[in-house]
Amino acid sequence: MDFDSKISFWLNDEKIELDKLNSDQTLLDFLRLEKTLRGTKEGCAEGDCGACTVLVGRLKKGKLRYQGVNACISFVASLHGTHIVTIEHLKSDQGQHPIQQAMVEHHGSQCGFCTPGFVMSLYAMWMENADPTTAEIEEALQGNLCRCTGYQPIVKAARNIAKFGSLEQDFLVKERQQNIDRLQALENNTPIAISQGDDQVFVPKTKAQLAELYAAHPDATLVAGATDVGLWVTKFMRPISPSIFLTALNDFDAVQEKDGQLIIDGGVTYTDLLPLIDEKLPQLSTYWRRIGGAQVRNMGTIGGNIANGSPIGDTPPPLIALGATITLQKGEETRQLPLEKFFIDYGKQDRAPGEFVAQIQVPLPKPEAHFATYKISKRRDEDISSVAAAFYLEMGGDKIGALRIAYGGMAGVPKRASHVEAALNGKLLTRDTFENALNAFDQDFTPLTDMRASATYRQQVAKNLLLRFYDQHFGEAESLDTLRQAALVEVN
Ligand SMILES: Cc1cc2nc3c(=O)[nH]c(=O)nc-3n(C[C@H](O)[C@H](O)[C@H](O)COP(=O)(O)OP(=O)(O)OC[C@H]3O[C@@H](n4cnc5c(N)ncnc54)[C@H](O)[C@@H]3O)c2cc1C
Ligand code: FES
Ligand code: FES
Predict the structure, then answer these.
(1) How far, in Å, is the centroid of ligand 1 from the Cα of 106?
(2) Cα–Cα dist 373/387, whole Å
(3) Based on the domain organization, do 71 and 203 belong to the same domain?
(4) Range of the domain at 138
(5) Other CB atoms within 10 A of residue 299 CB
(6) Same structural domain for residues 208 and 240?
(7) Binding site membership of 147 for ligand 3 (Cβ less than 6 Å)
(8) Residue 113: CB within 6 Å of ligand 3?
(9) Closest-approaching ligand to the CA atom of 41
(10) What is the pLDDT of residues 272-294, one digit of tens each?
């Protein structure tokens, strides 16, 4: 394989070309230490607070889309072919950018440490939706924390951006064609390899190159969205070289619907899947929007969420309940297995060295089926699940027919509640049947106590979720979404 020897991207109005680079160099360090662009702040260095939010513009099929990401856990090696926009670049013909002006007028800032991150998240939202509702603003700001202003003034500022300028006059809109041209000039199919001392960085451009490189370097760290790997570096100082970055692949982010299934490439991000979730799997819409915050959803991939094998990853329970399978690839060889079989034990997956998660096949629910997902966490937004649950039920006449129940946070792996399923299968659909099945939970799960929840709490909540599923689908309980929507106050 022939390689290029430099990473190229645009930072604001400057073309960056790097032929020296370590696997673990973060964008935040690059901005603050090398480019002295210190408007982007470091709060938590673990993707939680949003103080480091910058925009990453990527070309997809000729279209340029800007998304907020956390610079603290983004690696420079993952930025090839992108346009990075930092707070320093914001401008308008009138001076302050309309979003900055709105923040000033509505007192959206006190100490100001979080403010650049909020402005960048609002900017990403505004470019997609110039007239957002309060609920949409809250969603756009899930990944930004403020310790002193309080969120109401910031939401007010966001509601009133239009008073300070129009999107048509925005500089990134006016300069869009120039930025597209700049990024198109960086596009090619030649993979990149950079070595510095012992450190080795690979940036393949196609899935075939990825397969060949990973088969040749099975000890390499695959880095997709880096929302897990980033923390290995910033929190645990773990070396990740040799590294293979998946973000410049031009054929690893497709989703197609075929024969009643969604076929999802391993590199698809949470955000990119969201429109299809809303359309084809609306029962997952709220759950999906509670994975991380906007920045984490813009970065994190489904392949990464599955491959890391976490017992509290949010995608496995619903995917298992839907009967998903995955395709693993090593070199040119592929194999498929049911997703639930991939998770063998805590920290152990059915994945050979050099094998990667190439695709996920997700059967869509039959129209008459009942499918539901629930996430229980300490905070509503930007928090990892204490317990996650997914239920899929088809009737067989007046009896319970096909049934799959999967939980996260209840064992060392995401796991089906097979004894509970057996206690329900073929039985009459009544609340008594569901209540009687609760005893089977002790055969399925012996959860742990940890900082997120006690074992007793987890066991109780898992049982309660089964009853909630019954009550909401076959009883009279209103969904929590409906109640929350009714309680939401519009801010003007
Ligand atoms: C602030 C914050 C909030 C979060 N909130 C949630 C949450 O609510 N719910 C949740 O489930 N997770 C959450 N996460 C975790 C994270 O977003 C997910 O696990 C994410 O999906 C990982 O995907 P990635 O692309 O970022 O993977 P990476 O971090 O790049 O990689 C993760 C692991 O998968 C491997 N890998 C990546 N892609 C592949 C592939 N295609 N084939 C084989 N191996 C691969 C990597 O080598 C690594 O071992 C959060 C993370 C942060 C930082
Ligand atoms: S510094 Fe907190 S998210 Fe990056
Ligand atoms: S203004 Fe101080 S942290 Fe938000």
Answers:
(1) 36
(2) 11
(3) yes
(4) 93-169
(5) 27
(6) yes
(7) yes
(8) yes
(9) 2
(10) 999 999 999 999 999 999 999 99
